[in-house]
Amino acid sequence: MADLNAMALFARVAEHKSFSEASRRAGVPISTVSRKIARLERDLGVRLLERSTRRLRLTVIGEEFYGYCARAMEELGAAALMIDERQAEVSGLLRLSVPPSLERHLIVPLFAGFQARYPKARLRIWSTHRKLNLIEDGVDLAFRVDELRDEGLISRRLLTYRHCLLAAPEYLAKAGAPRRPDDLDDHRLIAFADWFAETRWRFFKNGERINLAVQSTLSVNDYDAVAAAAEAGLGIAELPSLLAAPAIEAGRLVEVLPDWAFT
Asked: Which is it for the CA torsion 9, 15, 19, 24, positive or negative?
């Protein structure tokens, strides 16, 4: 197959009837233009140009070959323009994998702005705790809240947040506020937990570490349910600050043990 770069240079030379003009417009040395076209003629086994010191003209077969090259360059230009237009205008279906609760507090609130900017785009959200295989499950983009262990994926950190203990003011008014993590044994606790996993809360302050095995009154693997239970005054709950912020700002929940780092 002929060298496409050489064909493009030949088309410029044929169009402008000048090696120097083709060199200037292509932004390459004139020696490169001459060498490429000579190599093209050698590969094709025909003479495309008749050259002299004063003039340049196309051979009969060169004239016909130029027609094909010009059309090919037009098609390649149209293909590049199509890519630019597609990139400028986002459209189609975007499939997202999102942990439960995150779609409500993060993705859905952003969708209005996304849709306004890209009106031809559609969004499909798969809310699941499972770490999906992006290829097998047909996922375009996955939001994760854990360390990325699949080295075959490209990741970008979007935000960081901390976990905190929260309770309704009404609950603390009745049960009292704990002063140390050890005091939590005397409280009703609401934990985010998987079905079989043991829940442990770890605390750190000024070099002191406390590791607490949680005997929860209620455990559920959905943070929205944890937040609802805490706001209902059912106990002290663990929540990510990202999800708890609206309830804290509204005064429905207050932080417990704020001086202790909590994980």
From this structure: negative
Q: Which amino acid is at 17?
A: K
Which uninterrupted H or E stretch holds 120? strand 120-127
* Euclidean distance between CA atoms 141 and 110, whole angstroms: 15
**DSSP letter, residue 137:** T
Measured over the CA atoms of residue 101, residue 105, residue 108 and residue 110, the dihedral's sign is negative
What tens digit of pLDDT does each residue of 201-247 get? 999 988 889 888 888 889 888 888 999 999 999 999 999 888 888 89
Contact 7, 72 (CB under 8 A): yes
The β-bridge partners of 34 are none
pLDDT digits (tens, 9 = 90+) for 32-44: 999 999 999 999 9
Compute the C-alpha angle 13/16/19, nearest 5°: 45
Distance CA 164, CA 149 (A): 25
Q: Output the pTM of the full model.
A: 0.57
Phi-psi domain of 46 (left: phi exceeds 0; alpha: psi -120 through 50; beta: other): beta
Q: Looking at 176-255, list the stretches that DSSP marks H as alpha helix, in order from N- to C-terminal side.
A: 223-231, 241-250
